[in-house]
Automatic annotation (TrEMBL):
Residues the record marks as site: Transition state stabilizer: 75
GO MF annotation: an example: uroporphyrinogen decarboxylase activity
A GO cellular component entry from the record: cytosol
Organism this protein belongs to: Loktanella fryxellensis
GO biological process: protoporphyrinogen IX biosynthetic process from glutamate
Gene (name only): hemE
One Pfam family from the record: URO-D
Family: Belongs to the uroporphyrinogen decarboxylase family.
Subunit structure, interactors included: Homodimer.
Source organism phylogeny: Bacteria, Pseudomonadati, Pseudomonadota, Alphaproteobacteria, Rhodobacterales
Protein name according to UniProt: Uroporphyrinogen decarboxylase
Catalytic activity, as annotated: uroporphyrinogen III + 4 H(+) = coproporphyrinogen III + 4 CO2
EC number(s) reported in the record: 4.1.1.37
């Protein structure tokens, strides 16, 4: 069955004349309409749990730019919150969580089958979006990968090198492995409910996969993603899975098969020419224009956008940035990128 939606066609392995486009963090602070709705909601978490407003900010970049996919507005840290962690955001700094450093911290977590009590507004956001999105726009759900989510739960905040998580992995492997197992099971449950609420594609964000060295990459980035993809495929074989092990570098090669993912999302630490030769033969790739071009614009943006499009033109490709768009990006540069991808 061939779907008409361009993103689903690319994910099924089709090479399209023009790659479909969406952008990580496309609903965000670079858009004045996002800032206005966020002010109306109060703080960031109130926006995530207000289904009407979360759907509204998801729709804003679709209305403004006509992206081919909408990613539901939420955050990867809602799952730990649903498991019982305290979570808050410090303006200008980022997330803060209660920390898990030993068995007693693990024991305080709620059973995975209780997450829906907190996460049901996210499912409602998806149901609203399925009604309100244009018929050719694909709806993407997401979760954080266990390793990335664990780094925040262990440290209680973002850390440049994920040192606290690496330290717990070394000092108390039983607690670390139990946390990873809980997060893997929780992510399967959470993404299953997202699919049942209308997500047509799911993406697993492993933002800190790049700090896993040696065997750790296979053990803590590839294996949990493989388990999540396999469990979802068993229940929902038609739903494509995008994996984003950011910072994988040359370990990106062969990941479609190792994870069982339909698409591997690439950060801009690899060149599009290298990835076209070494990753795209495995299946659809997504990426990988450096986000800074959305700040700087101009001829560099046009040249580098064309470079990404041309490099990936001979296989299935979804155009995206290598990471999220930043708050200092200019909305006009996003339009220039889209015009360059679609217009040549
Ligand atoms: O992409 C989208 O438009 C969908 C929504 C989305 C958000 N976060 C909204 C958000 C998605 C997919 C995420 C994923 C996410 N959240 C990741 C993985 C992707 C990545 O960026 O590496 C991570 C690590 C988080 C955790 C998180 N959330 C951090 C570290 C921060 C603070 C940093 C920052 O950009 O402020 C957030 C906050 C956050 N999540 C914002 C948005 C729009 C900004 C909050 C605001 O409006 O003040």
């Amino acid at each position: 069955m061939t779907s008409q939606k361009t993103i689903l066609r690319a994910l099924a392995g089709e090479t399209l004349p023009t790659p479909p486009i969406w952008m990580m963090r496309q609903a965000g602070r670079y858009l004045p309409e996002y800032k206005a709705t966020r002010a109306q909601a109060g703080d960031f978490l109130s926006l995530c749990y207000n289904s009407e407003l979360a759907a509204e900010v998801t729709l804003q970049p679709i209305r403004r730019y006509g992206f081919d996919a909408a990613i539901m507005f939420a955050d990867i840290l809602l799952l730990p919150q649903a498991l019982g962690a305290d979570l808050w955001f410090v303006t200008g700094e980022g997330p803060r969580l209660s920390t898990i450093t030993d068995q007693s911290g693990l024991d305080k977590l709620k059973p995975v089958d209780e997450i829906d009590a907190v996460l049901s507004p996210v499912y409602e956001t998806l149901r609203i979006l399925r009604r309100e999105l244009p018929s050719d726009t694909t709806l993407i759900g997401f979760a954080g990968a266990p390793w990335t989510v664990a780094t925040y739960m262990i440290a209680g905040q973002g850390t440049p090198d994920q040192a606290p998580a690496h330290a717990l992995k070394a000092s108390d492997p039983a607690v670390f492995d139990a946390l990873m197992a809980t997060l893997t099971t929780g992510t399967i449950a959470y993404l299953s409910r997202q699919i049942e609420a209308g997500a047509e594609v799911v993406k697993i964000f492993d933002s800190w996969a790049g700090s896993l060295q040696g065997d750790d990459f296979a053990k803590y980035a590839v294996e949990p993603a493989r388990q999540i993809a396999a469990a979802l495929k068993a229940k929902y074989p038609h739903v494509p899975v995008i994996a984003f092990p950011r910072g994988a570098g040359e370990k990106y090669a062969g990941l479609h098969a190792a994870i069982g993912a339909d698409c591997i999302a690439l950060d801009d630490g690899v060149t599009p020419e290298w990835a076209a030769a070494h990753v795209q033969p495995g299946g659809c790739v997504q990426g990988n224009l450096a986000s800074r071009h959305m700040v700087t614009g101009g001829d560099d943006l046009v040249r580098e956008t064309r470079r990404v499009v041309d490099a990936f033109a001979h296989g299935p490709h979804i155009f995206n940035l290598g990471h999220g768009i930043t708050p200092d990006a200019h909305p006009d540069n996003v339009q220039l990128m889209i015009d360059t991808v679609r217009g040549g």
